[in-house]
Amino acid sequence: MSTDFEDPPVQTASALVTGILGDLQTLVQQQFLLTRRELEAEMRQRAAAVIVFGLGLVVFFLDAIIICLMLAHLLHWLTSARGSDPAWLPLWACYAVVAGTLFGVGGLLSIVGRAKFKSVESTPETADITPSQE
Q1: Does 132 map to a domain?
Q2: What is the pLDDT of residues 37-52, one digit of tens each?
Q3: Is 85 a member of any domain?
Q4: Tens-digit pLDDT profile for residues 91-104
Q5: Does residue 11 sit in helix, strand or coil?
Q6: Alpha-carbon distance 102 to 100, whole Å?
Q7: How far is CA 98 from CA 58, 62, 106, 114, in A?
Q8: Could you give the CA distance from residue 71 to residue 62 in angstroms, rounded to a whole number?
């Protein structure tokens, strides 16, 4: 039985170093691409959370305007003669009901937006940089 072994092709040190450097370059490029995609995904999630939170703030702003109108009608109602308004519910109270509803909606949107923003996980690189909260 003959055992013929082939010698592996001889590689020079420069060919090995060139191969290692090429593999390292490919690995670094892939790492940058992965990090970029993770950051883009995180930014999309944070943008969605900011939009919800911003909608809550817009609703709060509209609520402030309605509260101002309500206060004007309350002042008018307080200074008018008793029995001059035939309505069961004064106009200022109607504004108060609408303002209370908008306050609830704005609060809910703000809470949901804040929760979504906090639920976004940071990439490991940025998580290591931020100080730990104890």
Answers
A1: no
A2: 999 999 999 999 999 9
A3: yes
A4: 888 999 999 999 99
A5: coil
A6: 5
A7: 15, 10, 12, 24
A8: 14
